């Protein structure tokens, strides 16, 4: 594999970054990435309850999803929030200036829906907008932040997705998102605050991620996910291109949100679904599925409920992984886990050919010291495979399908450690000795 990658690795060895701790939003929530279901990508703004009652945005949809979450193991796997997106409200506020649900599609109102969702041991999410209108043209919250926060709290809402459309001036976005954060706090109710502040600021300037992290529990950075490989790839590429800025601010209480999981829908192949689930775990992303839990194939369900990937996603250390190497059409991403472990994703981005073997040597990884002097390597997806005890210099051959991803967990084994100098020497030796074919 490409030599330029090796030199990059050599440069990385011995480089230590010192990062000052920053204080995330202090509401005690989202200590690990939020898990749940969100209607948008699959159900969008379908309000045609007369002709499409099964799929329209109505209280029935969320009640049925809540039922399925309990019935089909989603809740046991960790999925907890049932989230409403745009198009739930009436076009008019009530006489007291409060938002109200569309009376025809939500005859019981949101409070009753929240009670129902809570009775299942789940939580309810709702949607509003920082500007004058929601993206689909329903009433916005600008000028009503306190009223709307109080209304949501009274209803028993547990999460707010706050969109960023129709802000009269982009320079007001920061203020608006911060004001709503304060308004939510004032209600005294614990409400996860999901923002889109950086997404709407990026066209104008580089957002202040310190301020964002102090204000929100998670934040969207990039365009809406679509049910396609093109979209998933674009999200991954954007994240890698901005990782030095955004990965460093993620941690318990505040996460980068690459948008919904579209697994179980129509647009991704098996391997591409494996890649989305693996990479959302590596990125410490909120796991908000947008699919139809009433009609989902068993393979997609198994993948979304994969306990190894969920454990990586929910790891208590709360560090977001980074892309650390790229070459020959492959990408390597590393996410440090608790107890000195490491999660490793190897993606085959080639869209031609068959399964390819990717030669991996742990000494070449940024986090090579998780295997000093030895480690235990386990491939957890797409197939579970125990690879046994390794030293940093033994080559691992990982087969990956085109557009697929293999995920490994590396567990350190204690012993007499190599010094960084010794490892450097070995890396140099490996890079010279191409015949061995052990380099990345
Ligand atoms: C935010 O709150 C401050 C203080 O109450 C107020 O002056 C400002 O207009 C508010 N901005 C927005 C966008 O709501
Ligand atoms: C409000 O913020 C304070 C600290 O800023 C925090 O201690 C408290 O838990 C927050 N309350 C809610 C309901 O988020
Ligand atoms: C970013 O926000 C933080 C926290 O609010 C603030 O202290 C800092 O000055 C801001 N940075 C810039 C460049 O505006
Ligand atoms: C990811 O990279 C950024 C800088 O490139 C760094 O600040 C951050 O700590 C890295 N994250 C991990 C988990 O290594
Ligand atoms: C390696 O890890 C696997 C999976 O956690 C475990 O079953 C196995 O016992 C471990 N082997 C060693 C030698 O630690």
UniProtKB/TrEMBL annotation:
Its EC number is 3.2.1.-. Homodimer. Belongs to the glycosyl hydrolase 27 family. One of its GO terms (biological process) is glycoside catabolic process. It catalyses: Hydrolysis of terminal, non-reducing alpha-D-galactose residues in alpha-D-galactosides, including galactose oligosaccharides, galactomannans and galactolipids; a globoside Gb3Cer + H2O = a beta-D-galactosyl-(1->4)-beta-D-glucosyl-(1<->1)-ceramide + D-galactose; a globoside Gb3Cer (d18:1(4E)) + H2O = a beta-D-Gal-(1->4)-beta-D-Glc-(1<->1)-Cer(d18:1(4E)) + D-galactose. GO terms for cellular component: extracellular region; lysosome; membrane. Residues 1-17 form the signal peptide. This is Alpha-galactosidase. It is found in: Lysosome. Keywords: Disulfide bond, Glycoprotein, Glycosidase, Hydrolase, Lipid metabolism, Lysosome, Signal. The keyword Glycosyltransferase does not apply. InterPro entries: Aldolase_TIM (IPR013785), GH (IPR017853), Glyco_hydro_27 (IPR002241), Glyco_hydro_27/36_CS (IPR000111), Glyco_hydro_b (IPR013780), Melibiase/NAGA_C (IPR035373). Catalyzes the hydrolysis of glycosphingolipids and participates in their degradation in the lysosome. CDD domains: GH27 (cd14792). The lineage of its organism: Eukaryota, Metazoa, Chordata, Craniata, Vertebrata. Residues 318-404 form the Alpha galactosidase A C-terminal domain. GO terms for molecular function: alpha-galactosidase activity. It comes from the Eukaryota. It comes from Albula goreensis.
